[in-house]
Amino acid sequence: MSQSRRCPYCNRSFLPSAYRPQQSVCSRPECQRQRRTDYHRKKLATDAEYHQVALESQKQWREEHPDYQKQWRQQNPQRVESNREGQRDRKRRLRRRFLDKNNLAFDLKHSASEVWLLGPHLCDLDKNNLALAQVLILPSLAHPGTVIKPS
User: Fold this and answer.
1) Which of 8, 16, 41, 102 is 20 to 30 A off residue 66, Cα-Cα?
2) Beta-carbon neighbour count of residue 7 at 10 Å?
């Protein structure tokens, strides 16, 4: 008699099949789909020949369905825009990751000017001594009674 096991995907108890005593995943379709997906990813990473066959299969499918992406984009404009937004966010985070905790400092001449960093994502730049920014140099306001001569 088989012992009850716990499915690693849904965490439910199940009895393995009498025909597959080594069964480690329950028979629910979602769990079986996840098991196949995990197997496929692992096989792609470890078996070069399997990886090559998968690439060739994908290439053949794309050649047989050349207009698929164009049609999909036309039929799903909200998903296309959502993908664009997601890509913008991923690129933004990647750029900020290069600046996060960057302690590179330059030896600059002393200046009476002050540098102010303004923007919505400054909290991501804590512990950062280098920031790419557009610098605006503004003259200081003269004290009353001081005459400013044009240069």
Assistant:
1) 41
2) 19
| DSSP category for residue 122 | G
Mention every residue, 6+ apart, whose C-beta is less than 8 A from residue 103.
Answer: 127, 128, 129, 130
Cα 2 to Cα 19, 23, 47, 92, distances in angstroms: 11, 11, 33, 53
pLDDT digit string, tens, across residues 24-72: 999 999 999 999 999 999 999 999 999 999 999 999 999 999 999 999 9
| The dihedral formed by the CA atoms of 67, 71, 74 and 80, expressed in degrees to the nearest 10 | -80
CA dist., res. 25 & res. 33, Å (int)? 10
First and final CA of the chain: distance in angstroms? 97
Backbone angles phi, psi at 14, to 5 degrees: -155, 160
Question: What six digits make up the tokens of 25?
Answer: 């995943």
Asked whether the beta carbons of 10 and 31 are under 8 A apart, the reply is: yes
| Residue 72 structure tokens | 């999909």
SS3 36: helix
3-state secondary structure 54-94: HHHHHHHHHHHCCCHHHHHHHHCHHHHHHHHHHHHHHHHHH
